[in-house]
Amino acid sequence: MKPWSALAEKAFCLKYGTRKEETLFYYDSAPSNTGLLDTMLSAAPVVVLIHGLGDEADSWRHIISLLNSRGYRVLAVDLPGFGRSVTQGKISLENHAAAVIRLLDAVEQTSGLEKGVFLAGNSVGALVAETVALEKPEISRGLILIAGSIPGGPSNPGPFVLAKLLFSRKWYRAYQGNSIKAWDSLRPYYADLDGLPQEDKEFLMQRVMARVESPTQERAYFETQSSLIRAYLTASSKFARLIPNYKGKILLLWGEKDKVMPISSAETFKALRSDIELELISGAGHLPQQEKPNETAWLMADFMDRVVD
Predict the structure, then answer these.
(1) How many domains does the chain have?
(2) Residue 172's domain is classified under what CATH number?
(3) Top mean-pLDDT range of 4-8, 36-40, 149-153
(4) Residue 295 is part of which domain span?
(5) pLDDT digits (tens, 9 = 90+) for 157-183
(6) 3-state SS of the chain?
């Protein structure tokens, strides 16, 4: 997968583990008002963007420059097994969180993270962001959860158990070589897939075909999905106990037309703390960072600005 063209110069790979093929792909984009001096870069507020299931860092392709323009340094990662990140180990929500922590440790060693980071995740990425924040509260100054959270999934986890049985690899592989069917598989995640700019539609078509043709991404998809089901079944009560004591601020962003995760899920999570903010994004589905990047970026930046101040 080639990076989104505007991000090509901001792409990096972090090698980890003992096997040379284990790498973590990420974008590291300096804020436009700091220049590239290390001392200025280290002082800039940092936000980490974490994609959802079957996606990669380019999900944030429009958001990155918008947050840069507001003075934020942006890290956007391909989780292990997705996009261009390669892993030989087990793939799970816990290991995705460990990969984000590994990246933050590497950045801390090279350019510093003076005041901690904001963690922003979409869908499954929101769960990863929560996990990182609760495991490393000393580095997390705030959470932005976009169309996902624990607790806050479906009130009945039955659909997820059923999905594990029905969403077989045969179902996944049926998209191979069938661009029309693969394209249509994206529709539930958008309020208006056909209304996206042509450049985005061409890009998404290339990406969805690259994913379904890739054995490594197939493995990442199903192992992450299984981990997601387990998390909703077993971790909701744990997160419900821990979130009220989390010292950072929390913002929930939800597409008003989300067909994947209902608004009621956001309300369930919001009930955990009186200070949790919830913003609905008009005309957006499950991926507001792609359908409504300007609105999404400004809501994120306004929230972070208040925390920084």
Answers:
(1) 1
(2) 3.40.50.1820
(3) 4-8
(4) 5-308
(5) 555 545 554 556 787 888 999 999 999
(6) CCCCHHHHHHEEEEECCCCCCCEEEEEEECCCCCCCCHHHHHHCCEEEEECCCCCCHHHHHHHHHHHHHCCCEEEEECCCCCCCCECCCCCCHHHHHHHHHHHHHHHHHHCCCCCCEEEEEECHHHHHHHHHHHHCCCCEEEEEEECCCCCCCCCCCHHHHHHHHHCCHHHHHCCCCCHHHHHHCCHHHCCCHHHCCHHHHHHHHHHHHHHHCCHHHHHHHHHHHHHHHHHHHHCHHHHHHHHHHCCCEEEEEEECCCCCCCHHHHHHHHCCCCCCEEEEECCCCCCHHHHCHHHHHHHHHHHHHHHHC
